[in-house]
Amino acid sequence: MTHTSLTPTHEPTLAAAAWIEKLSTALSSNTPTEAAQLFEEEGHWRDLVAFTWNIKTLSGRAAIRDMIAATQATATPSNWRLEEDATEANGVVEAWISFETKVAKGRGYLRLRNGLAWTFLTTMVELKDYPEKRNKLRPKGAEHGASKSRQTWLEKRQHEEATLGYSEQPYCLIIGGGQGGIGLGARLRQLDVPTIIIDALPKPGDTWRNRYKSLSLHDPIWYDHMPYIPFPENWPVFTPKDKIGDWLEMYTKVMELNYWGSTRCTQAKFDEERQEWTVEVDRDGEKLTLHPKQLVLATGMSGIPNIPNIPGMDSFEGEQHHSSQHPGGETYKGKKCIVLGANNSAHDICCALWENDADVTMIQRSSTHIIKSDSLMELVLGGLYSEEAVENGMTTYKADLTFASIPFEIMPQFHIPAYEAVAEKDAEFYQRLTDAGFMLDFGEDGSGLFMKYLRRGSGYYIDVGASDLVANGDIKLKAGVSIERINPKSVVLTDGTELDADLIVYATGYGSMNGWAAKIISQEVADKVGKCWGMGSNTAKDPGPWEGELRNMWKPTHQEALWFHGGNLHQSRHYSQYLSLQIKARMEGIDTPVYGMEPVYHLN
């Protein structure tokens, strides 16, 4: 049950080993009720593909029992063992675990309280018969020996580029060539899944290059690595947009991805009889029809830009655009600029406009969570994603699994104390913002940034300087109002205030990802899969009922062979592993009985 390197008298290790032994016995004897009794009454089992072929959290003994009963025969788990000595703090024993199922190797993370499982994470690591060709399995590259039919590496790549999508069809088509699509493409490449990535922009990284000049990643470097190739040790903590663009272009080439730039999907339809997609694309003027078996929409976590319909928009004589189309602040010196919105993009754009001597007013319609970047790194992310964490032996993979081991239902319990510490540390900063009239929140339950991100994907700003401008009045603020009407040279707010305007930026966010399904496939399919993102927390913009996981992300949907992939760099990196394994299993004909798909409650 345990490695010989484990300490035989270490009490936390003994407790974890005893629990694993009991679980193994209960699962082997097909007694799901006994297995469920090893959990607290309200304990949680989060499974990432290993047992359920789904991304699923089971909460409470009854749900855990039902899942075990439904999956035991096909999963047939075995070879459970501790990977290293368990630890204990505040009465909670934590342990790293490995195991196997009939078709895969897995890894898990266990939290015990008083001998019962509080949380249990199981993840699929690799398919036994189809491991990635890494380390000892890496290709030789050079083909030694004598052969008249030998091809060089370059000739093989050129042949693949010339045939895939033409005389040979991809098994998987990824629509969207940002970091999500590229990272997933790299995972599928390592699993020998023929894949094409398409994007409307010419080159990998252009999604970043085309954004406003001041944009950079607000998450720190340790949180943002891509699969397989981590950023080098001299990489800046916060990556500028053009630098991340260059990295993605390099990554695409080095990872040998089949990336079609300047390519738009004009239509897609699933053929039930042939069990494949018919996808019409325009590749830089060339019309092609592709027939992938699997279709992935990797358009980020966001859908089509939300642009409000405000009376008088058509009469405006200045410039107006969505934040996704904002070019930067350079051409607006001396202009009267209105930014509708108060989240990340709004703050960045307001700051850049102020830096370029524009007269800028932010219109804040509802409250926003603000957290200073340094405080986020120190008090929230630092234990897992920081230079100190790396020095203490924390790897990116272990950090991802540790983060994933906390079910969303209890995640606020972990975050609320951290954000209480943030509020105390930065009390003066928050007071200055409040005094300026800015509407602040820490989430409806005080759980802060990441829970807001998971629940609604909006409503926050990681402060890298703009908040001080708001507090000082350099960025003018109108809070608790919106734009009621637009005149040729001004906007009228809902409180009756009229502001002169040469530029209006709609930093008003995006719709659900299934909006792309409606545009590319059909409204019927978009409604069939339902809304993407959110988990049913019954908070603002995340209506119930509770679902426990993000809707439709990285897992099977109610439209066969259609997948959604997106999120920040951390999520794209981590969950691309599970999505790639699901697609590979289907390509190889492995039985993938999906357990626990949620009904569709919300269409958009």
From TrEMBL:
<dbReference type="InterPro" id="IPR032710">
    <property type="entry name" value="NTF2-like_dom_sf"/>
</dbReference>
<dbReference type="InterPro" id="IPR036188">
    <property type="entry name" value="FAD/NAD-bd_sf"/>
</dbReference>
<protein>
    <submittedName>
        <fullName>NAD(P)/FAD-dependent oxidoreductase</fullName>
    </submittedName>
</protein>
<dbReference type="Pfam" id="PF13738">
    <property type="entry name" value="Pyr_redox_3"/>
</dbReference>
<dbReference type="GO" id="GO:0004497">
    <property type="term" value="F:monooxygenase activity"/>
</dbReference>
<dbReference type="GO" id="GO:0050660">
    <property type="term" value="F:flavin adenine dinucleotide binding"/>
</dbReference>
<dbReference type="InterPro" id="IPR050982">
    <property type="entry name" value="Auxin_biosynth/cation_transpt"/>
</dbReference>
<keyword id="KW-0560">Oxidoreductase</keyword>
